Each structure stands twice: as C-alpha cells, then as structure tokens.
Amino acid sequence: MNFLNEIAGRYPGALSLAAGAPYEGFYDVEDVHRCLRRFCEHLRADRGYSEEQVRRTLLQYGRTKGIVHDLIARHLSVDEGMDADPESIVVTVGFQEGLFLTLRTLRRDARDVLLAVTPAYVGATGAARLLDMPVHPVAGGPGGVDTDDLVRHIRAARGAGLRPRACYLVPDFANPSGVRIPLDLRHELLDIARREDILLLEDNPYGLFPLKGERLPTLKALDTARSVVYLGSLSKTVFPGTRVGYVMADQLVADGAGGSVRLADHLARVKSMITVNTSPLAQAVVGGRLLEHGCSLERANAREAVFYRRGLERLSDGLARRFPAPCPVTWNAPDGGFFVVVSVPFEVTDALLERSAREHRVLWTPLHPFYDSPGPMRQLRLSCSALPPDGIDEALDRFAVFVRARAAEDGIRW
Amino acid sequence: MNFLNEIAGRYPGALSLAAGAPYEGFYDVEDVHRCLRRFCEHLRADRGYSEEQVRRTLLQYGRTKGIVHDLIARHLSVDEGMDADPESIVVTVGFQEGLFLTLRTLRRDARDVLLAVTPAYVGATGAARLLDMPVHPVAGGPGGVDTDDLVRHIRAARGAGLRPRACYLVPDFANPSGVRIPLDLRHELLDIARREDILLLEDNPYGLFPLKGERLPTLKALDTARSVVYLGSLSKTVFPGTRVGYVMADQLVADGAGGSVRLADHLARVKSMITVNTSPLAQAVVGGRLLEHGCSLERANAREAVFYRRGLERLSDGLARRFPAPCPVTWNAPDGGFFVVVSVPFEVTDALLERSAREHRVLWTPLHPFYDSPGPMRQLRLSCSALPPDGIDEALDRFAVFVRARAAEDGIRW
Q: Any idea what the CATH number is for the domain that residue B177 is in?
C-alpha cells in the first residue's frame, strides 16, 4: 500500500484505477459540523444529557467500548437484520484496529494460527504478521471460498500441533477478488466453523454496494452458534477521516475465575492498552450521520450505491469494449463492490506499475501482495471507486494502450 | 483504571480526588467547530489548498504519519526549544498508541526488555505486558530516578542474556509520584543512555503545569545523541476527546538493505497495521487549537495552568491543615502537575477504596497498581485536576474523616 501511495504521489497526473478509497465527490466539510450538532441534539433530547454531560461525552476521556455502540446496533438491525446486543460491540479506530484487537486476543502463543481466504486483504495478513501469528492461506476460487480446502487446512494445522483459531474472509465483494460467496456456501461455512470449532472473522466494507438485486444475509445474520466475529468498517459508508469502525463479538469466553465474559469485553481490555478509546469526537460525527438516516447506512448511501454500481458497470463494459474476445486479457464479473481482477498475458510487477504510471499515466494494483508467498503473477486489480464514469473511460483507454504495448513486447498481439 | 471507573460509576455522588483526567469546566463543544474551521482556513491560506484538497485532507484516508506533524514541530520549537524535524514525528491515537508502536518496534524477541522508573504509569507497563515484553522496575525515589539502580538493572539484564532496550519515565511531575527530575539528573540520565546504549522513552503530559517558576528543559531538548524518544500527549492541553498524541523519534536505524531510515518511519509502518492513520478530523481540531495560539500550548493553556497550580496548592495546603504534624499521615510536595502521594498508617486496598466511596463519598487512587509486584502498600495518590478549588476542600474534608476513621480501627489516633 505504501508503494502504491508513493507511486501515486510521484505521478499526480496519473488516473487511478488502483485506489480502493471511496469517491470524494460527495464530500463536504460542512457535513462534519452538521453531524456533530445532530449527535449533540441526540444526547440532549434522547438521552436527557445536560450541557455538562454533552461536553464530557465529546471532549473528555470516555467509555472504552465507545459511545455510538447503540446506534451501530440499530444500524445492524435496520440494514442487516442482526439482533445485536450493544454491549457486544466495541467501537474501534477503523476496521484495522478491530481486527488487530481480535487477533491479539485470539493469539495466546506461537501455536495459534490464522486462516485467511486468499487472495486476502493486506491489512489483515499484515496485522497477523505484526502479532507473529502465522497465516495459512485457504483457496478462494470462483465461489469465494473453497470449503474443502478450508477443512483440509484446519485439520492439517491441528495435525501439526497448531491451533487454527479463526478464518478471515470478506463474503461480500472481497478485496481484491470482488467475489461474493453464495448463500449455500455461507451456510456451509457456518456448519464447518461450528463443527471444527473455529471462528469466522467476517469483514464487510462493501456489502451495501451490490451491482443489482438483493443483498445476501451476512454470515453474522445467519450465525446461530456465535461462530462469527463481525468486523465493521464505516470508511466507505461515512468517511475514512473519522477512522471509526467496530467489532461485534458476542461470544462468551472464560473470565479466568470460573465465570464467563463477552469476547467484546476482552477486546476492550486490550484496546485500553493500545488506543484507550476511539475519539469520541470522531464517533459523534458517525453518530450524527447515522441519526440523520434513522440509523440506516443503506439509506444514507443511496446516492453512493448508484455511483458505485454505475462505476462497476462502466469498468466491466469498458473492458469488454476494449478487449473483445477472443483475447488473452480476461477478467471476472463481480456482483458488486469496487473491484475487478484482470488476467493479462505477462507478469505483473511493481516495476511494471511504475512504468504504467510514468509512460501511460494510469494506476492499477498488482495482485501479488494479496498472496502470502508471491510467485510471478499475471493478475492485477482494477477499482471503480475513486473516479467518476468519464474518468473510468479515460483511465481504461490508457490502460488498454499500456496492456497492448506491454504484451506486444512479448510478441503477443490480438 | 477499569476498577476506578467502575467505582466512580457506582457512586456518582462521590467527589473525585482519583481522576487524572483534565478539568472539564473550560470545555465548550463550540471550540471544536471553531478549531475545525481554523484548520481549514490554514489549509487554504497557508498551504494554498483548493476546496477539493481541504475535503480530501479531512475526510479521506490520509498520511500515515499524520497531517499536523508540522504544527506539532512548531509547538515543540516554541514551547520546548526543540529543533524537531516534522518528518521525525508520527501523530498517534494518544500517547498510548505512541508508546505501543515504540515498544512493538523495539521488541524483536523474548530477550528484549523494558526498564521503567517505578512507580510507573499503568498504561506504560500494561502496553509492555500486552507485547510480552518484561518490565524491569527502576527505583524512583525523591529525585525521580535512582541512576545507580538504573545502571545496575541495565547491567544485570545484559548479564542475564537479555537486551534492555529502553527506559520509560515521566521526568516532569510523574504519574503517580508527582516528582520532577532535577536538571543535573537529567544530564546524568542522558550520559547513561549514551554510554549504556539504551533509549529513554520520555512521556511528558504535565510539563506545562509547574507549581511555580521556570519549567525545566525536557530530556529531548537536552539530547545531543538521539537517545530520547519523546512521547507527547495532547489530552491535558487540548482535549482527551481528540485522542491525538504523537511520538518524536529522530533516531536513524538500519533499513535492512544496508541503508538507514528514521525510527519514525518504522513506527509508521507498524501503525499502518494497527490504526492505519490517526483520524484527520480529530487532528484538524488539534491543528486549529495550535494555530489559534501561534502553536504555543503554553499560551493556549494559560488559564488551565493557573487553575491546576491553584488546585495543587489547595491540595497541599488542605492536607497540611487537616493533618498537622506530628501525624502518621504524610505526603510529598511536588513542584507541579496533578498528583500528590499520601502515606497512611494502614494498608490501602481496592476494597478500602470501595468503602471510602460508599461510606465517605470520596475517591482516590491506590498506589499498588503502579508497581509491578504489588505487596501490601500504605500509599495512595490524590489528584487536583478534576475538581474546582471548593470541590477539593470538600473532598479533603471527607478524606480526612475517612482516614481518621480507618486509622482508629487499628487503634491509631493523633
């Protein structure tokens, strides 16, 4: 990610099909002021807070598990049909801290390992690495997860004296693959998790952005055995600048004194030693945004959902027009989200990205960082999120010229 | 800390001489709006940003090392006489994340240990524990640090095959001891650090609040050999609710490829896997506050400094009036900050705190959590920061009744 940012900084004229960041065109700093005021009104009107309590809530040290946990629980109920106990929610400094807390809590010693559906988001594997927690890659494939491979890996790890604790995955429009796991496989995953006694760490930043039709229920909404820890990001649905995310962890775990305690409370204890609490000011902005839309982020993002849908269509259609079959350039057809994976007839390296930026002024993301043991890869990721439709067309024009030029160097023409 | 918060929650009528949190009486939510606008103006006027760039800076993902690093560097120059390279500063989610990043970076394996001047802030020892990094306690004593004991511990650790990497300390008005390390000992500490090849982790949340006279130069301001990593908190000088702090780490370390890189850049790499970046919205509030006062937090906190000075005087004078010598209750006389340590003729336990809250409606902090291996302790910490002067008097009245009642149970009267 640092390399991508560095390249983007060096070639400011390059159009980005690389960035997975949300579109900025709808942003307005005045929204921050308005959302803050809305949340303060809520504290006064709905919670009966005095001015002193309002000030304290926003400006003083605060509750480790956060101050918008109840509004997030309502969002999960309204948008995802989840029956979330607010006390099982820890508001975190983005998804990233949520995952870090979860992994730190699950890792007791060197025998604890993480499984991750591959290709996997680099923030997830990076957090595990920082905690000296080995990551065992589980095959993804066209269905989003190869459940036989998952079981094989769980049993192989146990056979080697290790403890496979959890499997990290993005069921909805994964980063980078764009793939959505179908409903029957979701049920099968939950069966496996229960039977094999592992947790599923469900990361869901893109679920609100399907290409068409219905959204699928999250793993957590289908979870009857507390097998799923749900990791929420608000970066794509509120603002990345709040750095607010959350973990919903309703598992009961031993408290070390013969009783049991929520996993969320364990996470909070760890959090108190890493960031103390998530900025209540930033939480207040998120709270205000939720309140403005009856706690529905689906409603709050109606305009964004249309924008991303059109972008993804433009990306797919644009590829089809520029690389008509038969052609050695192919790509997948995600049902939503931001990403498309493109296969090309040459090896995709960081150096090639730099050349694409320099000579063709277009950025994309090599796929190898999303694999733990990178061999030579002939794949890359395109994203539709950062550019408006015309920008996508212009970027694809440049991308097509780049791909043809690079392929021609190997004598490949079509 | 959790136990303290729980007790405070259960006895809302209790007056708190326990909380080390800053005084809330000067807070105003409108300050947040004003500081945000001020920072946006700065981006437009001083950095020449377009509206699009302003929006992006506040609301989008951002620079891992932060967006107010330059303003913090100016603050360190204006208020502390430090010549800080902005690129050596990482803006963090409070002091706590800054320390966590530093310790994670210093810890390579089980042989790396931390030294900490004792009694030590629980957030520091807690972070080390979370990283499985043993903490070797160095005696504090009336001068704030026993340098002979420090050298002894460094050599003993090395003799045992361990790597003492750094010593954590609060040179100015430490938590909980209130003690300030005098200038000659500061120079001696820097000599030891250079000679023995360890880092000093200087935590400075209270330095702007001396009781009288001049402030002393920070260790970092005296550091000519890059022996000091400076950990900044803004919770006491801006708002805790921003959760913004920073690390200044100008050391050069090997980059693994034969070159060298700033320690700050190592910290940033770790940060990218824990919190990605510190909320730019929260940073903008801090930035606005700094800009309002020419980047001087000393000027920004002129009113607060007077308030805390009066509070500390009221606390010391109030103790003297209520426990005139000769008396088995004694206390130290810090030169500033928030805290006084009181010695009492009975053992101070968590249960006793609960009783004090229930029967006498006054809160204080037992000292045993600030020691790594708690034996029975006859000391507690009083803080002047949360209450206005009249509240301190009322709380001390209750405290004196409590202490006399408890001592009388052991037949101790004076």
A: 3.40.640.10
Mean pLDDT along residues B106-112: 96
Residues A206 and A290 in one domain: yes
- ipTM greater than cut 0.90: yes
CATH number, domain with residue B384: 3.90.1150.10
CA A400 to chain B, closest CA, distance in angstroms equals 29
pLDDT at position A9: 87
Which of B277, B299, B321 terminates a domain? The answer is B299
Q: Do B21 and A272 touch (CB under 8 A)?
A: no
Dump the DSSP string for B321-374: HHSPSS-S-EE---SBSSEEEEE-SS---HHHHHHIIIII-EE-EESGGGSSS-
**What are A253's strand-pairing partners?**
A261
How would residue A142 be classed by pLDDT, with cut points 50, 70 and 90? Answer: confident
B77 shares its domain with B219: yes
| Residue A414 in domain | no
Same domain for B285 and B360? no
Best A243, A283, A383 residue to mutate vs chain B (most B CBs within 10 Å): A243
Tokens of residue B378, six digits: 């006859």
The whole domain housing A104 covers 29-299
Over residues A95-120, the mean pLDDT reads 97
Contacting residues of A for B28, CB less than 8 Å apart: 55
CA A3 to CA A171: how far, in whole Å? 27
- Look at B241 and A52 and tell me if their CB atoms are within 8 Å: no
Residue from the list A24, A40, A130 with its beta carbon closest to the beta carbon of B55: A24
Residue B306 reports pLDDT greater than 80: yes
Report the C-alpha gap between B223 and A306 in whole angstroms. 56
Distance from CA of A60 to the nearest CA of B (A): 5
CA distance B341 to chain A (A): 23
Are B274 and A60 a contacting pair at CB < 8 A? no
Residues A163 and A203 grouped into a single domain: yes
A314 in Cβ contact with A320 (< 8 Å): no
- Inter-residue contact A172 to A336 (CB < 8 Å): yes
Query: Within this chain, do residues A246 and A306 fall inside the same structural domain, yes or no?
Result: no
Q: Cβ separation of A55 and B28 shorter than 8 Å?
A: yes
The residue of chain B with its CA nearest to that of A128 is: B273
Q: How many domains does chain B have?
A: 2
What tokens appear for A314 in the block? 């433009």
For the stretch B224-254, pLDDT in tens is: 999 999 999 999 999 999 999 999 999 999 8
> What is the band of A4 on the pLDDT scale with cuts at 50, 70, 90?
confident
The string of DSSP codes covering B47-105 is T---HHHHHHHHHS---TT-SSHHHHHHHHHHHH-----GGGEEEESHHHHHHHHHHHH
In a domain, B414, yes or no: no
Chains A, B: CB contacts within 8 A come to 173
According to the model, what pLDDT value does residue B372 have?
A: 75
* B272 & B317 share domain: no
pLDDT higher than 80, residue A368 = yes
Contact A279 B280 (CB under 8 A): no
Going by the DSSP 8-state scheme, the letter that residue A210 receives in this structure is: B
Q: Indicate if A311 and A295 belong to the same structural domain.
A: no
Minimal Cβ distance to B274: which of A100, A281, A285? A100
Which of B299, B324, B356 is the last residue in one of the domains? Answer: B299
B8 band by pLDDT with thresholds 50, 70 and 90: confident
Residue A370 inside a domain? The answer is yes
Is residue B285 in some structural domain?
Answer: yes
Residue A259 and residue A351 in one domain: no
- Report residue A255's pLDDT band, with 50, 70 and 90 as the boundaries: confident
